[in-house]
Amino acid sequence: MLKTYLYIPQDLNQQIISLAEAQKISKAELIRNALAEGLLFLKRKQASSAEVLLKIAKIGKRYQLKGPKDLSAKMDDYLWKTT
Fold this sequence. Notes:
Radius of gyration: 22 Å
Distance between the termini: 56 Å
Order of helices and strands: HHH
Number of domains: 1
Shape: elongated
Structural class: mainly alpha
Mean pLDDT: 89
Low-confidence stretches: none
Number of strands: 0
């Protein structure tokens, strides 16, 4: 295992202490568990976003939908420009 230092706010440290005591584990173990679960959540979130885009692409392909030919060049205009 690697030793890592990080700065956290006092209130977060107090929450970590309270949870570690309640679960009867060390602060380090609680932090490792929280980081592992947080990373899994972020990976799933990225995967689900990609899955949604793939589903949208399949729907477009199934119904032979066509978008504007300049979509990649003017993506911001199409997404954010109000008319």
